[in-house]
Amino acid sequence: MFHVLVTLDVNYLPPLKMLMNSLFRNNNRPFTFYLLYSRIPEIESELLKQFVERRKSISLCRFI
């Protein structure tokens, strides 16, 4: 398993999804992403959660 720590705000969500997609498509091992963030609206947080749930080998740990 790989562990990835990402610090971000709402502006970094699109690149984060691109990073997750790339790792998911190009590796066979599971990932845990640790997110340290601020100022992410609840709707964006929910969309990110749905995005991650569609990828079974990625889990998400959020630090607010």
UniProtKB/TrEMBL annotation:
Matching entries from InterPro entries are given as: Nucleotide-diphossugar_trans (IPR029044)
Q: Which organism is it from?
A: Parageobacillus toebii
Q: What is this protein called?
A: Uncharacterized protein
